[in-house]
Amino acid sequence: MAWIYLFFGILAEVCGTTSMKLSRGFSKLTPSIALFVFYGLSLILVNLALKRLEVSVAYAVWSAVGTAIMATIGVLYFKEPFSALKVASLVLIVLGVVGLNLSSR
């Protein structure tokens, strides 16, 4: 169940970060409100996940998967530049999370 909480916490964090971009510096009301709702939900879900998961692994997974999803959304939706360096950097982040996960077992 902890991994499910973490997964939905990641999705909520991604929605919060996307809302932050869409709020345009808090100038758009709906995305500005959504930002706080999604970040609050994310923190609640990650907190529930931490009852069973090690904080180092949970936070690493939360931040790395969130970063990878946001980078993808940035390229596909917000038309941010895509480069081999960006892909390589994301791969290194994922490898770091895998290493942390393997070291905790």
From TrEMBL:
Membrane topology according to the record: Multi-pass membrane protein
PANTHER family membership: MULTIDRUG TRANSPORTER EMRE, SMR FAMILY PROTON-DEPENDENT DRUG EFFLUX TRANSPORTER SUGE
Organism expressing this protein natively: Alicyclobacillus fastidiosus
Family: Belongs to the drug/metabolite transporter (DMT) superfamily. Small multidrug resistance (SMR) (TC 2.A.7.1) family.
SUPFAM superfamilies noted in UniProt: Multidrug resistance efflux transporter EmrE
Keyword Cell membrane: yes
Subcellular location: Cell membrane
TM region positions: 32-50, 57-78, 84-102
Major subcellular site: membrane
InterPro entries assigned: EmrE-like, Small_drug/metabolite_transptr, Small_multidrug_res
The keyword DNA repair is annotated on this UniProt entry: no
Protein name, entry field: Multidrug efflux SMR transporter
Keywords, ordered alphabetically: Cell membrane, Membrane, Transmembrane, Transmembrane helix, Transport
